[in-house]
Amino acid sequence: MVWLELAWAATGIVLTVGNLHAFIGDLASGRSGDPYFWFVATAAIAYITFVALFARHT
């Protein structure tokens, strides 16, 4: 079960870093970066929420 949790965590990290890079690339090319900002913000909120929930259950 630990491997499954680590796989999900690694997937989340990869997707969040990818969205962060897309956001920075969008800003660097002169666009607003707004869609990527919301992906990154949603990922951050979800991460904090899940960490808080899972920390209470262990």
Q: Your description of this structure?
A:
The model has no long low-confidence stretch (mean pLDDT 84). By secondary structure, this protein is mainly alpha-helical. Helix 1 packs antiparallel against helix 2 (34-57). Helix content is 88%, strand content 0%.
List keywords for this structure.
58 residues; mainly alpha
Write the layout of secondary structure elements.
Blueprint lengths: L1 H27 L5 H24 L1
Helix pairs in contact: 1-2
Mean of pLDDT:
84
What does the largest sheet look like? none
Structural class: mainly alpha
Question: Fraction of residues in helices?
Answer: over 70%
Short description:
By secondary structure, this protein is mainly alpha-helical. The chain is 88% helix and 0% strand.
